[in-house]
Amino acid sequence: MIIKYILKKISLFSLLACGLVFGLWSCNDEEDNSRYTTVSTEIIQAASGAGQYELAITANVRWLITVTTTGGDEWCTPNKTEGNGSETVLFTFTPNPEITERSASITIYGASVANNCYVEAFQSGSEPTLSLSPSSITFVATSSQQNLIINSNTAWTVTSSEAWCTPNVTTGSGSRSVALLVTANPATASRSATITVSGTDVASKSVQITQEAAPPALSASPTSLTFTAGGGENNFTIFSNTHWTVGSSGAWCTVSPTSGSGDAVVTVTTSVNSAATPRTAMITVSSNNLSATVEVEQGVSSGSLPYQIDISGATFADCYIYEIWDEAKELKIGELCKEYLHKNVSGTEIVRMQTIVAYPMVDGKVDLSNGLVVENGYFVSWNPSPSSTAPTNILATYTSGESVSSKPSVIYLDQDASRMTTIEISAPPANRVQAKLKPYILRDYRSGPANDYGISTEDYTYKVVKIGTQYWMAENLRTTRFRDGANIPTNIPSGTAGATTDPAPSGSGWQENLGRPGCAVGFGEGLGTAAAGRIREVDANGTVAAAARNDVGVLYNYSAIINKSFESTSQIVSADERKDALSPTGWGVPTRVQMEMMRNYVSQSTAAGVTLPELDYHGAGALGNASGLGLKGDSQRGQSGGWNPNTYMATIDYRYDISQANNYNVHRFDCLRIDTGTSLCAVTNAAVRIANFVRCIRQD
Predict the structure, then answer these.
(1) pLDDT tens, 329-358?
(2) Cβ atoms within 10 A of the Cβ of 491, count?
(3) Which phi and psi angles does 697 have, rounded to 5°?
(4) By C-alpha distance, which of 153, 164, 171, 156 is closest to 194?
(5) Which of 226, 274, 317, 450 is most buried as measured by Cβ atoms within 10 A of its Cβ?
């Protein structure tokens, strides 16, 4: 801003008169060159503070002074703006509030003098300053706002030590007001923060912020919970800003945790109500003089008689699963499973063991959300819809429940209840239905034209094992027929019984049937011998060794699995053509994802290769075959007639791998491999000509 100072007391008449005089002087100047004005200096250098500076004017004429300033103020003013002849003019400077230098231009006009006199005035900038007001601020416990005054002549930034206290602006310059906003303090103790203002070339300043404590608070939601007669778990939430304890008025109703602070979720567990009347318990949450209550109500059964299940005869010698039946109603009411429980959370082993779990039925299906570990009273639940295609922790929960010191001989189930229990029901024995256990065995009956061994029917049974949420055959498939009864060619050659070396293929054997369906029916030679683990198709008399076949199963190439020949290396078998033609009805050769899901759960790892004695029939140590799958056979038939000493299990998944040599190796399928001796387990792939064992999975 430019400001010109002219003496305000000069009237219009005086200015006109002055102009006439000047005009007269100008006229006289044509005749007289003796008129002059001079100044004592052309530069005035002023300090930043207030002060006065003299300027001597030497003249023999009348003169006029104007001042043009920068900085927006009248900070440089003369004590007079006009005069006559020689005089000393006193210029007054106000303090410079800025840190930068400012300037003013002073002009002296002499009457009828050809050239004016010019003086430049400069005033130094002030030192940077920064101060805050007030020096401390106290807020109430609720969310609120107060102002902080920043006094400064430089640029600055504002920071807060705590997220709950924030300024409405974080940068600026000069003096201004900044709003400080605080959120509500949820705690019962006061809290502090520091607001720091940092300026350019000046020491930082800070203000201490204090927020008062909130009063203690405690509530619970919901305020009531309802359970069926079968008991179970449910939750309520504590909302608090202080320490609390939780207790229940009924021994049948337990809570976890029983103490804590702040907000928390509390799990309420109720046992089975075998009485004829409903029951109620009160859960009380307490903190000093505060309390909150949750009412728990548990109903009774609909009047049907409860079940008593004698499990003392469940030896699991011939099966891994017993179905629990109400024989009078021809109704399956549950399952008793010898299964492998494994759960690992962030590197911590929660459970890893083979144990016995009882499950009830809900809507005609096994309820995997309510399992009872009969040997220790723990409850288990499984994720019915895993979050990934091949997860590890499909065991959702493994939590303590009923107090069990040893495996009971009897367990119980109300007909309308949702959970098994080891706690004896109050109904007298005469009012209990005695449920029966039946081994769950898969039967596979097939008939058709006589095969190479003159057999026209096959009737095999297989143990079934539950692994996680999957049901697997616990034995290798033994059929030599497709599902529709047609024979599978036994065109995979083998050696002579008792031989310790493998013969080269010849004649109409493997090399002429590289891509056609085929299987090898055989028997396992004794472990520990020179030919340990080898499989032979026939014995010395050319007949099938049935006992050995039942022991180790049959090897199938991929063409036999889908009953589809591979006629050339360029042929690609479509997804519609890759249909399982081998498995029993209701079962299937597993997909890669299903196999990985089983492997990942047992190992609790997604690593490419892990040691898994739990899956290995020959696995060493206490965990050997703990899963019940017990992969057995120690052999994979090679395309050149050789035998692989490791165990392979086939999947239905096919891949065309152009990176392989230009032969039938481009046709490949996925399989599970377990190394003999190390139990190292990985999902890999092999050429379709390779023959592997098959384990089927139930298609629920």
Answers:
(1) 888 999 999 999 999 988 899 999 999 999
(2) 18
(3) -120, 140
(4) 164
(5) 274
Phi, psi of 589 (to 5 degrees): -65, 130
With left for phi above 0 and alpha for psi between -120 and 50, is residue 599 left, alpha or beta?
alpha
Sketch the domain layout of the chain as residue ranges.
12-123, 130-211, 218-298, 307-439, 445-698
What values do phi and psi take at 29, rounded to 5? -65, -20
Residue 614 has which token pair? 């739990």
Between 207 and 387, the higher pLDDT residue:
207
Closest CA to 404 of 355, 367, 368, 362: 355
Q: Is pLDDT above 90 for 88?
A: yes
SS3 call for 163 = coil
Higher pLDDT, 30 or 314: 314
Whether the Cβ atoms of residue 346 and residue 327 lie closer than 8 Å to each other: no
| Closest residue by Cα to residue 463 from 316, 333, 342 | 316
Architecture of domain 12-123: Sandwich (2.60)
Burial, 145: exposed, middle or buried (Cβ in 10 Å; 0-12, 13-18, 19+)?
A: exposed
Closest by CA position to 321, among listed 413, 412, 420, 437:
437
Of 149, 144, 261, 147, which Cα lies nearest the Cα of 211?
A: 144
659 contacts: CB under 8 Å, gap ≥ 6: none
Coil vs helix vs strand at 599: helix
The residue to which tokens 């052999």 are assigned: 635
Residue located via tokens 């065309």: 656
Partnered with residue 282 across adjacent β-strands are 295
Q: How far apart are CA 344 and CA 93, in angstroms?
A: 80
The yes or no reply on domain 130-211 and CATH 2.60.40.10 is: yes
DSSP E strands in 426-496: the ranges are 433-439, 441-447, 457-467, 470-473
pLDDT in tens, 492-532: 544 333 333 333 333 333 333 456 676 765 433 332 333 33
DSSP string, 634-679: --EE-TTS-EESSEEEEEEEEEE-TTS-SSGGGEEEEEEEE-TTT-
Instruction: Quote the CA–CA distance of 105 and 69 in Å, as a whole number.
Output: 6
CB 314 within 8 A of CB 324: no
321 pLDDT band, cuts 50/70/90, is: very high
Q: Do domains 130-211 and 218-298 have the same CATH topology?
A: yes
Q: Are 567 and 438 in contact (CB under 8 A)?
A: no
According to DSSP, the residues that pair with 90 across neighbouring strands are 54
- Phi and psi at 597, nearest 5°, equal -60, -45
Please give the sequence-ordered ranges of beta strands (E in DSSP) within 15-75, or none if there are none.
37-39, 43-46, 51-59, 62-69
Task: Spell out a b/e string for 387-396, using b for 16 or more CB atoms within 10 Å of the CB, else e.
Answer: eeebbbbbbe
pLDDT tens for each residue of 266-285: 999 998 776 668 899 999 99
pLDDT tens string 384-426 = 877 788 888 899 999 998 888 888 999 998 766 677 888 887 7
91-110: per-residue pLDDT in tens?
Answer: 999 998 888 889 999 999 99
Q: What is the pLDDT of residue 72?
A: 65
- Residue 569, sorted as left (phi over 0), alpha (psi -120 to 50) or beta, turns out to be alpha
> Which pLDDT band, with edges at 50, 70 and 90, does 657 fall under?
confident
Topology annotation, domain 218-298: Immunoglobulin-like (2.60.40)
Task: Name residue 551's amino acid.
Answer: D
What is the spatial distance between Cα 668 and Cα 656, in angstroms, rounded to a whole number?
A: 6
Residue 602 confidence class, pLDDT cut points 50, 70, 90: very high
- Determine the distance from the C-alpha atom of residue 243 to the mean position of all C-alpha atoms in its chain, rounded to a whole number: 30
Q: Which residues of 37-65 are buried (b: 16+ CB within 10 A; e: fewer)?
A: bebeeeebebebeeeebebebebebbbbb
